[in-house]
Amino acid sequence: STRVLLNARPTGRPTHADFQVETVDLPPLATGQVRVVNEFCSVDPYMRGRMNDVKSYVPPFALGEPLVGAAVGRVVASEADDVAVGDVVLHGDGWRDVAQLDAAAVRVVEEVPGVPTSAFLGILGMTGLTAWVGLTQIARFREGDAVLVSGAAGAVGSAAGQIARLKGASRVVGSAGTPEKVAALVERYGFDAGIDYRAAPIRSQLPDAAPDGIDVYFDNVGGDHLEAALDVMTTGGRVALCGAISAYNATEPQPGPDNMTNVVTRSLTLTGFTLAAYQHHMPEFLAEVGPWVRSGELVFDETVVDAVGDVGRTVDAFLGLLDGENTGKMVVRTA
Ligand code: NDP
After folding, report:
1. Which residues of 282-321 are buried (b: 16+ CB within 10 A; e: fewer)?
2. 85 Cα to the center of ligand 1, angstroms
3. Which CDD domains would you find in this protein's record (predicted)?
4. CA 229 from centroid of its chain's CA atoms
């Protein structure tokens, strides 16, 4: 098995020197274990936080130890009764080409014809559920709401905007970091308007894109984006604080909203969430969103980094994710 270790704790934006690739021989399978050839490994923004030595809602990665993360693969050997060779499984031993773990730590998933197994890392998995939970459970979206999504061309954002549209939003506005992504927001994902936050400050562009204000803000970026949103929130608006990626590589304190008094005067609700507490919504999410994916009403994009025979490319995928090289879910093909 070839896998990626955390070599050093990154300062600011990680570099290749923070990672190391090693190849190990796997021991024979013990009773109750399975061996999985990973087809796809996930890289996700939260992994940046786990590379720091700070207490958070997930413990930090250990120095000199293999990185872990979501992966989907096929079972090639099994010493477990309930998992068979050929099963497609989701598990947490990513950042490697072959995983060996207890059958209790894998979940068998049912393949969907015509949908790649990578979708279980994205639209039919963690990021899709995050979008749905943030919108429906945290922001308590109602038909007719005007919705703003930041990080809108990413995995969570592209799903959140489309779910809002399909559930009857009056207007869906998104922001992203390149003209190509902004074009995709409108043309491919069906947003009503897109903002390129690198072209001019988001705060100066948002009022034109949301002339009647925003009822629900789905925040993936924080900082200047949250500040801009607070300007245009309608009375009684709701903000789901999903992530703040603008700060993840920061070494200095980041500018924060200077207009928090709007939270008071407009009776806003800002609610943060981490998906771990909302996993039980998966069946409800799949019942609503699964048919939209099958019918093509909700599209999902993936940016696939090819790491077959070169697991170290997982690092390129992770750095590319932080740099915005992905549209939709960033996934790594390992087989
Ligand atoms: P994405 O697919 O959105 O990839 C990250 C994107 O962030 C990049 O493509 C880039 O797009 C954007 N980005 C990077 N730096 C900045 C910046 N300084 N300002 C604005 N945008 C930036 O990742 P995910 O969909 O997986 O995650 C999106 C957010 O959701 C993250 O904040 C993540 O932490 C959060 N999250 C939270 C969960 C929870 O349980 N609360 C669960 C899952 C995700 P661009 O080109 O537009 O800059």
Report:
1. beebbeebbebbeeeebbbbbbbbebeeebebbbbbbbbb
2. 35
3. PGDH (cd05288)
4. 21
- Complex prediction ipTM: 0.99
Kindly give the distance from the C-alpha atom of residue 54 to the centroid of ligand 1, in angstroms, as a whole number: 20
Give bridge partners of residue 22 from the DSSP assignment.
Answer: 3
Select from 130, 180, 220 the residue to mutate for testing ligand 1; criterion: most ligand atoms less than 8 Å from CB.
220
Cα–Cα nearest to 137, from 289, 277, 328: 277
269, 216 contact by CB (below 8 A) = no
Determine how β-strand 98-102 pairs with β-strand 107-109.
unpaired
Instruction: Give me the domains of the chain, ranges plus CATH numbers.
Output: 2-122+301-333 (3.90.180.10), 126-277 (3.40.50.720)
Interval 12-51: pLDDT, tens: 999 999 999 999 999 999 999 999 999 999 999 999 999 9
Residue 78 Cβ inside 6 Å of ligand 1? The answer reads no
Find out whether the beta carbon of 245 lies less than 6 Å from any atom of ligand 1: yes
For ligand 1, atom 45, the nearest C-alpha belongs to 177
SS3 231: helix
Q: State in Å: Cα 217 to ligand 1 middle.
A: 15
Residue 133 in contact with residue 281, Cβ under 8 Å?
Answer: yes
What is the largest distance, in Å, between two alpha-carbon atoms of the chain? 64
Helix 223-232 crosses helix 202-209 at what angle (to 10 degrees)?
Answer: 40
Compute the distance from residue 135 Cα to the ligand 1 centre, in Å. Answer: 16
268 — phi, psi (to 5°)?
-80, 155
Q: What is the pLDDT of residues 50-97, one digit of tens each?
A: 999 988 888 899 999 999 999 999 999 999 999 999 999 999 999 999
Cα 281 → chain centroid: 17
Cβ(242) – ligand 1 distance below 6 Å: yes
* Assigned token pair, 48: 């940046």
* CA–CA dist 248, 42 (Å, integer): 18
State in Å: Cα 214 to ligand 1 middle.
20
Q: Which atom belonging to ligand 1 lies closest to the Cα atom of 153?
A: 47
